[in-house]
Design a protein that fits this description.
single chain; 17 helices; eight-stranded parallel β-barrel; alpha/beta; TIM Barrel; CBS-domain; globular; 2 domains
């Protein structure tokens, strides 16, 4: 799965990172989290199931409104009610809440609990699907030694036969984490690897600078035994210099993100396809790879980045609009669900990053922030989960590869023919969502 979730606080938290790895991708936890928070997030991913869906829980006094701020009414969606001791007591299909009053307590609802299966009875994903189908429901609770520990929908069981999870040497889900280039990047990187991180991302807005080179050499010298990503850059010269300093992967992209105002504020940046094409070619002989970071609006953008030579594509705000993202689901004036996203150089991100400074210093830094501090990312009712988006992206990518006659990503890079088109030609290629 050549997809990576961006190290943005509005995008990648422990739940989304685990969901990415379960389908073969990789989630990058942001550097703005404290080491204790990162340690807890890494532990969450490493303890997560490679097959089952995690519990989405609410307390016994939770209302329907509170439940729907965590999960939407979608096929296979489940909410788990805890008892007074905090243990899972019953799992409810979210569809059962459809006609309940928003202020109704879940504990008072007259609704049948979902049937449960024992994990000992599940030999593989196909067997799990058969058990769900036999129960005549869209999802079931999963018990381990009589205790509810997870849920599983029919869709998830099918997906597990298609996607292979990204696992470490111990059979646990993989996870990455970002590190800044200031302070003590070596010490922080070592602590993260000790906590279980599988990939380190040395991250700063302008990666072609001496501090990045020094940080790379410092971390590389520690021989931590994990791949090192460095960025962001957009030129061949920068990519080669960072590869020679110790980067295994270059993160490429300045200004293409949906929440980024860098190009309009500074005139700095480069069109993403050109940047990926040039950097990937430049570092190929160095044994390094490229992640295309940003600019993804449609599955076609993923295909184009991979055709240009990227080994993976990093997605940000698109993934923020999913149930697994860290933000709470809110509803606008018309009842449409959304989550909030913000740029990592915005006022909101700056305030979070420097929250340990005194109020005057925080206010001073916030004066010069750039980027969007809050944007509504609407959830698509038909594709509200990360899994739904991954299905759509990989479906488009697989089809693109068949058009190019390619069975592997390496063949795709060799065989894809990329041309230019006018704005009118681009518009012509869009589907018409309504009739004429």
């Amino acid at each position: 799965m050549p997809l990576v979730s961006a190290n943005m606080t509005s995008v990648t938290g422990p739940r989304l990172a685990a969901a990415m790895a379960r389908r073969g991708g990789l989630g990058v936890l942001p550097q703005d989290l404290g080491l204790q928070e990162l340690d807890a997030a890494i532990h969450h991913v490493k303890q997560a199931s490679t097959l089952y869906d995690p519990l989405v829980t609410v307390g016994p006094d939770a209302t329907v409104r509170q439940a729907l701020s965590l999960v939407l009414d979608a096929p296979g969606a489940v909410i788990t009610v805890l008892d007074e001791e905090g243990a899972p007591s019953r799992c409810l299909a979210v569809a059962a809440l459809r006609h309940a009053l928003p202020d109704s307590r879940l504990a008072d609802l007259v609704a049948d609990a979902l049937p449960a299966i024992d994990d000992d009875d599940v030999t593989d994903s196909r067997a799990a699907f058969a058990l769900i189908e036999a129960a005549g429901v869209e999802a079931v609770a999963v018990r381990h030694h009589g205790v509810i520990t997870a849920t599983l929908s029919a869709r998830s069981a099918v997906r597990s036969t298609i996607y292979s999870p990204a696992l470490d040497a111990h059979g646990r889900l993989r996870v990455a984490a970002a590190v800044g280039v200031t302070g003590e990047p070596g010490a922080r990187a070592a602590a993260l690897v000790q906590a279980g991180v599988d990939v380190l991302v040395l991250d700063t807005a302008h990666g072609h600078q001496e501090q990045m080179v020094q940080a790379l050499r410092e971390v590389r010298a520690l021989q931590l035994g994990v791949p090192i990503v460095a960025g962001n850059v957009v030129t061949a010269e920068a990519a080669v210099e960072l590869a020679e300093a110790g980067a295994d992967i270059l993160k490429v992209g300045v200004g293409p993100g949906a929440m980024c105002t860098t190009r309009m504020m500074t005139a700095v940046g480069r069109p993403q396809f050109s940047a990926v094409l040039e950097t990937a070619e430049a570092v190929r002989d160095h044994g390094a790879h490229v992640w295309a970071d940003g600019g993804v609006r449609y599955p076609r953008d993923v295909a184009l980045a991979l055709a240009a030579g990227a080994s993976a594509v990093m997605v940000g705000s698109w993934f923020a609009g999913t149930l697994e993202s860290p933000g709470e689901i809110e509803f606008d004036e018309t009842g449409r669900p959304f989550t909030s996203s913000w740029g990592m150089a915005s006022t909101k991100a700056v305030e979070q990053r420097f929250r340990r400074l005194d109020s005057f210093e925080r206010a001073r830094k916030a004066l010069f922030a750039e980027g969007i501090s809050s944007s509504r990312i609407y959830l698509d009712p038909a594709r509200s989960s990360l899994d739904d988006l991954l299905d759509m992206i990989t479906s488009g990518l697989r089809s693109s590869m068949t058009y190019a006659g390619a069975a592997t990503l390496a063949e795709f890079r060799e065989r894809a023919v990329v041309g230019t088109q006018s704005a009118a030609g681009y518009e012509e290629g869009k589907a018409l969502p309504v009739s004429w």
